Amino acid sequence: FNVGVESSGLLEMSVMIGIVGFYPGWTVRRRFFAALLGLTATFVANIARIMFIAFMLQNVGKDALFISHTVLGRMIFAVLVLGIFWYVLSIGTLNVLSSRIRKGR
User: Fold this and answer.
1) Residues 6 or more apart whose Cβ sits within 8 Å of residue 79
2) pLDDT of 36-80, one tens digit each?
3) Between 30 and which of 26, 39, 65, 89 could a Cys-Cys bridge form, CB atoms 3.0 to 4.6 Å apart?
4) Neighbour tally for 39: CB within 10 Å
């Protein structure tokens, strides 16, 4: 295997750090743990994508490389990353807003 920048998940991890690192309304501690959660989940999602591609190559053969890597692998990774971003950002924001509403701020 040759893993380049596009296949490494580094771009998505960088976006996660950028979004969470400058997210308004969160403390530095909350941003740190949200970024750590997002980075870990993105890393695991990329490993799952690579395992899927390897599984397809093992069971279907080299003829499946294009479809498993370029189409299905990227689709799986994109869906997982969107879910991770939604969870980290939306759930985190909803929790903060809920806490502020309960406190009357």
Assistant:
1) none
2) 999 999 999 999 999 999 999 999 988 888 899 889 999 999 999
3) 26
4) 19
- Written as six digits, the tokens of 93 are 């924001």
**C-alpha distance from residue 74 to each of 8, 24, 88, 91 (Å):** 12, 30, 21, 25
65: tokens are 């490389």
Please tell me the distance from the alpha carbon of residue 83 to that of residue 19, in angstroms, as a whole number: 15
* Residue 15 pLDDT: 93
Tally of residues, the chain: 105
Burial class (CB in 10 A: 0-12, 13-18, 19+), 68: buried
CA-only gyration radius of the chain, Å: 17
For residues 48 and 88, give the distance between their C-alpha atoms in angstroms, rounded to a whole number.
19
